[in-house]
Write a structure and sequence with these properties.
Elements: H1 3-15, H2 26-30, E1 39-42, E2 61-64, H3 66-72, H4 82-92
Antiparallel strand pairs: 1-2
């Protein structure tokens, strides 16, 4: 397991697999096929930190569902923050 995979595992071990934007648990929503499935988002883009920086899986990574992960990266330039995406979801949800 490389350090990136290890950081992902530690992030999920700490934060769980519930999306930090929409609060969905994909396993609860789609059953066993999706149990434990989640993307992990870099809070600070890798392009903004130096190669010598050691990622802290708890502080620097956060679990987000695939749809919300894509939304975070739709913003031109800097990705949206989790709180910005959560605000948009709240604003535009029925």
């Amino acid at each position: 397991m490389n350090s990136r995979e290890g950081a992902r595992v530690k992030c999920i071990a700490h934060h769980g697999t519930r999306c930090k934007v929409c609060d969905v648990d994909l396993g609860a929503r789609f059953g066993p096929i999706a149990t434990g499935f989640i993307h992990v988002h870099d809070i600070v883009p890798l392009s903004k930190i130096g190669k010598a920086y050691v990622v802290d899986p708890v502080k620097d990574l956060t679990p987000v569902c695939p749809t919300r992960h894509a939304i975070l990266h739709l913003n031109r330039g800097e990705p949206l923050s989790v709180s910005e995406a959560r605000s948009l979801l709240k604003k535009y949800s029925g």
